[in-house]
Design goal:
about 200 residues; two-stranded antiparallel sheet; 9 helices; about 75% helix
C-alpha cells in the first residue's frame, strides 16, 4: 500500500440506503438495456442514435452501481491528496478543489447542452434521462473532490433524509422513469400490430 492512500477494495457503504441505491442503479440499467433491446420497435426517427444513447445509459448505471460500493472516488481523492503532498501544493488544495468543482459543473452544463443539441429532434423522448445522467455524473465527480463545504452540503439532513440520498436517487429516478415511459409507449405501439414484443425479440 502506498503511504497516504487508504482506499482498499471492499464494500464502501454496507447500509440499507447504500444497498438500496445499488439496487436502484442496477434496476435502472435493466430497463435501459430493455429500451436498447426493443429500440427498433420504439424509435422510428434516428433509431441508431437513440439506441446508442440508451446503451450508454445502461452501462453507466452498471458502472455507477459498482462504484457505489467500491467507492472509487475515495481512491481518486487519495491519489489527489498523495500527489498534492508529493508535489508541494497541498497547502493550496482548497483552491484546486474549488477549481475542480467549477470545472465539473461547467463540464456538466456543456455536456447537457451538447446532448440537447445532438438529440434536438427527439429531445422530448429522452429529456428526463439526459438531466438525470448529468446530475449523477456531476454529483459523483464533486464527491470525488472531497471539498469540505460540498461534503457538508450533501450530508445535510432534510427532515431526516440525507441530501446525498435525495440527489443521487433523484438522478436515478429520472433515468428509470424515462426508460419505463419509453417501454410502455413502445409496448402499446407494437401491440397494435400483429406482432408483439416477444415475437420481435
Amino acid at each position: 500500500m502506498i503511504d497516504g492512500i487508504s482506499w482498499t477494495p471492499g464494500i464502501g457503504d454496507p447500509t440499507f440506503m447504500g444497498w438500496l441505491t445499488v439496487i436502484a442503479y442496477f434496476l435502472c440499467s435493466f430497463y435501459s438495456f430493455k429500451v436498447v433491446k426493443y429500440s427498433r420497435q420504439m424509435f422510428e426517427l434516428e433509431h441508431l442514435r437513440q439506441k446508442y444513447f440508451w446503451l450508454g445509459c445502461a452501462w453507466l448505471m452498471v458502472l455507477l452501481g459498482f462504484n457505489k460500493q467500491l467507492d472509487l472516488q475515495t481512491l481518486f481523492t487519495d491519489i489527489g491528496r498523495y500527489m498534492s503532498v508529493k508535489q508541494g501544493w497541498h497547502g493550496q488544495r482548497h483552491t484546486f478543489q474549488k477549481l475542480f468543482i467549477y470545472l465539473m459543473l461547467s463540464t456538466g452544463c456543456i455536456c447537457m447542452m451538447a446532448m440537447i443539441y445532438y438529440y434536438a429532434r427527439v429531445l422530448r423522448a429522452h429529456a428526463l434521462a439526459i438531466v438525470g445522467i448529468c446530475c449523477l455524473s456531476v454529483f459523483v465527480l464533486i464527491r470525488a473532490s472531497s471539498f469540505h463545504h460540498m461534503d457538508q452540503l450533501i450530508r445535510t439532513d432534510l427532515m431526516g433524509v440525507k441530501m446525498n440520498w435525495i440527489l443521487e436517487l433523484s438522478g436515478i429516478a429520472l433515468v428509470l422513469f424515462n426508460a419505463r415511459q419509453l417501454i410502455r409507449k413502445g409496448h402499446q405501439k407494437v401491440m397494435q400490430s400483429p406482432q408483439g414484443f416477444a415475437k420481435q425479440s
